[in-house]
C-alpha cells in the first residue's frame, strides 16, 4: 500500500521573528516531527527549517 504524502507549514506566527514560513512534505509525519524535536538530528541537518528551529527555538514556532 502506498503512503499518502502530507504537506505542512511550519511558521513563526507567534512573534514574527523573521517573517518566514517553512513549507515541507513527508509521508511519515511522526518521523518528521520527531526529527524536529531531536537536537542531535537538527544539528546534523542542513535544511532551512532545521536551522531556524536551532536559531530561534521551538517555542517560537507553530506547526
Descriptive overview:
The protein has 63 residues and is of the alpha+beta class. The protein has 3 helices and 2 strands, in the order ββααα. A two-stranded antiparallel sheet has the order 1-2. The longest helix is centred in the last third of the chain and has 9 residues, at 48-56. The radius of gyration is 12 Å and the shape is globular. The N and C termini lie far apart (27 Å). The model has no long low-confidence stretch (mean pLDDT 77).
Task: Explain briefly what this protein structure is.
This protein is an alpha+beta fold and 63 residues long. Helix content is 37%, strand content 19%.
Provide tags for this entry.
two-stranded antiparallel ribbon; 37% helix; alpha+beta; globular
Question: How does the SSE layout of this entry go?
Answer:
Elements: E1 6-11, E2 21-26, H1 29-36, H2 39-44, H3 48-56
Antiparallel strand pairs: 1-2
Q: How many beta-strand elements?
A: 2
Mean pLDDT: 77
Element pattern in H and E: EEHHH
**Count of discrete alpha- or pi-helical segments spanning 4 or more residues:** 3
Q: What is the approximate shape?
A: globular
Query: CA-to-CA gap between the ends?
Result: 27 Å
Instruction: Report strand %.
Output: 15-25%
Q: Give the proportion of residues in helices.
A: 25-40%
Biggest β-sheet description: 2 strands, antiparallel
Radius of gyration: 12 Å
Instruction: Specify the structural class.
Output: alpha+beta
